[in-house]
TrEMBL record:
Binds 1 zinc ion. NCBIfam families: rRNA maturation RNase YbeY. It is an enzyme of class 3 (hydrolase). It comes from Duganella margarita. HAMAP family: Endoribonucl_YbeY (MF_00009). This is Endoribonuclease YbeY. It comes from the Bacteria. It is found in: Cytoplasm.
């Protein structure tokens, strides 16, 4: 997790509600904390309608979810070893705000967690089984602690 990893970052606020509080410098800091290699990423904030459409079209699930990661070079064998991770990370503002309230977290804390989670997915981490989930949650918790946030999985 080195801040030295080259990052090309685009931030899009298709849903502008968090634009004032979840700023580009904060997002860059969170992304860089979770990067293990160079990356070209887009972080896009959307409303429930766009989130639901993307989740339905790409995952076959007809509801808005908190974060979607579209990793474009995951599993590509022909890429050079130094090729940057390329991904779009979509955050649904409606779901994010609702979950933050339910979990008694600030929107900033929850957004930081979801961005770290999405960046790890972009780099090939997953949570399809218990072992993978435990590993990914441990990495997320460590990164968030370094950023000054509480363990998102603590009960």
């Amino acid at each position: 997790m080195s801040a030295k990893n080259k990052l090309t970052l685009s931030v899009q606020y298709a849903d502008p509600r968090l634009q004032e509080s979840i700023t580009r410098p904060k997002i860059r800091k969170w992304v860089q904390a979770a990067l293990f290699a160079p990356a070209e990423l887009t972080i896009r904030f959307v409303d429930a309608a766009e989130g639901q459409t993307l989740n339905r079209e790409y995952r076959g699930k007809d509801y808005a979810t908190n974060v979607l990661t579209f990793a474009y070079n995951e599993g590509e064998e022909a890429l050079p070893d130094d090729a940057p991770t390329q991904a779009d990370i979509i955050l649904c503002t409606d779901v994010l705000e609702k979950e933050a309230a339910e979990q008694k977290k600030t929107v900033e804390e929850h957004t930081a967690h979801l961005i770290v989670h999405g960046v790890l997915h972009a780099q090939g981490y997953d949570h399809m089984d218990d072992e993978e989930a435990t590993e990914m949650e441990g990495i997320e918790t460590e990164i968030l602690a370094e950023l000054g946030y509480a363990d998102p999985y603590a009960e």
